[in-house]
Amino acid sequence: MNVNDSEFIEGQLEAMGYKLTKDMNLADIVILNTCCVRKQVEEKIYSTAGIIQQIKNIRPDLIFIICGCLAQKEKENFIKRIPMVDMILGPSQASSFAMLLNEYLEKREKLVVCNNKIPFNLKGIPIKYSHPIKAYVQIMKGCNNFCSYCVVPYTRGPEESRPTEEILAEIRHLVDHHYKEILLLGQNVNSFGNHSANHDSFLTLLNKVNKIEGIERVRFITSHPKDFHLDLIQVIKESKKICEHIHLPLQSGSDRILKKMNRQYDMQQYYTIINHIRKQIPDASITTDVMVGFPGETEGDFERTMQAFKNIQYDSAYTFIYSNRENTLSSLFNNQIDLSVKKQRLWRLIDLQRRISAIKNKAMAGQIVEILVEDKSKKGIDNQFWGKTRTNKVAVFNAENGSSDNDYLIGQLVNIKIIDADAYTLFGEFINVKTK
Ligand code: SF4
After folding, report:
1. 368-433 fold
2. What is the pLDDT of residue 358?
3. Fewest CB atoms within 10 A around its CB: which of 109, 115, 135, 418?
4. Model's pTM, two decimal places?
5. How many Cα atoms within 13 Å fall on the side-chain side of residue 192?
C-alpha cells in the first residue's frame, strides 16, 4: 500500500515538473514515505534525518518531508526530535500531496497534516507506476477490524471503497499502456463494498475486471479469513485471468491466541476455507502471514501453529516476531514473551516452512508452467531471465541458446519446463512464448 502511495506522490510531483533522483545531494525535495509495521523503521528515520540535516546545513532551502503511516503515528516525536522537518503527512494525504506541497511552497511554514477521516478520492490523481508491466490498483483504503496488535485502523482510518467504474477505468488505461498484470490492493479486499449501500461486492468487482479484454493476470491482496466468501473460489476457478494464488493470513494456529488477537475466526473456519480451495482448485498456491510470540503464547499455542503449517502445507509464509506497537490493545497485555523465546520459535517455524516449500517446489519438476518475464536474472548470468508463475512463485530460466539478444522476452508470457527447484525458486528451461 505504501509503494502505491509513493507512486501517487511521484505522479503528482512529475506533473508539477519535478524529476526523480535517488541522490539526496542533488534533490530539491527529500521524501521519506514510511511504514510502521516493522519497528526498525523508526531508528532508520532518525539516522537518515541526520544525513539530511547535513545537506540542509549547506542548502537550507532543501525541503524535507516525512509521510506515511509512521509519520501519522509518530508526528509529535518527529516534530520534537527532527525540528528541521518541513512537512509531515499521513498516508491519507498521499492523494492531496501536490496541493499540500503548493501550500507549503507559498507560506514556507512547517506543515503537519495527518487526517485519515477525509473522503477517499483517487479520481484524476496523477500516478507514476513503478513497474512497466504490472501495476497495483487500489480498490479500497483503511480497515475496520482492529486486530489487537495492529495500528492500521488508527493510521489509515476506516474502510472506504473506490467506485467500481473508477477502478475499471484505471485497469483499461493500464491495458492501453500494455500492462499485463494487475494487483487489486486493499487492507481487507473481501469487505470491498460492504460498508456502503449500493456498492458492488468484491465478487462482482472481480467478475467485471475479468471481462476487461487485454489484461492477462489479476491478483488481489489481502484477504481476511473472516470475510472470505467461499464463492470467491469458484470465481477464481472459472476465470482465466484471476491467478490461482490465495494469500490468507493465519497469524496463529491457536484459537485462544486468535481470540486475543481479535481476529474473529477460529481454526475450524480457517480450515473450511483451505479445504474448499484444495478441493476446487487443487493446484492453487496458498500463502500466509503468521506471527510468533504474541503476548501469552504458550509452547502449546506455538505447537498448534506448527501443526497448522504441517496440515495446510503452505507454498510460502511471511513469518514475523510479535512486537508491541504503541497504542495497540496487545501492547497492554501481560505475559509478554522473551525475545530469545520468540526468536527460537521463529526459526523453528521458518525451518519447517523451508522444508515444506522445498518439497512442494521440487515436486513441480517436469511441469510446464506459464511465466510472466519480469527481467534479466538478478545474478547477471548471460541469457538468464526471471519471472513469476500464476501461483506467484519466482522462476529463473535460461532462454534459447545461440541467440545473443533475448531481451524481447521481458514483459512476455512464456512457457518454461521446470528442471529443479529449491524452497524459494523454480529453475527451468525456456519452451516458447505463449500465444493467445
Ligand atoms: S485486518 Fe487486522 S492486521 Fe489487517 S490491517 Fe486490519 S487490523 Fe491490521
Report:
1. OB fold (Dihydrolipoamide Acetyltransferase, E2P) (2.40.50)
2. 98
3. 109
4. 0.93
5. 26
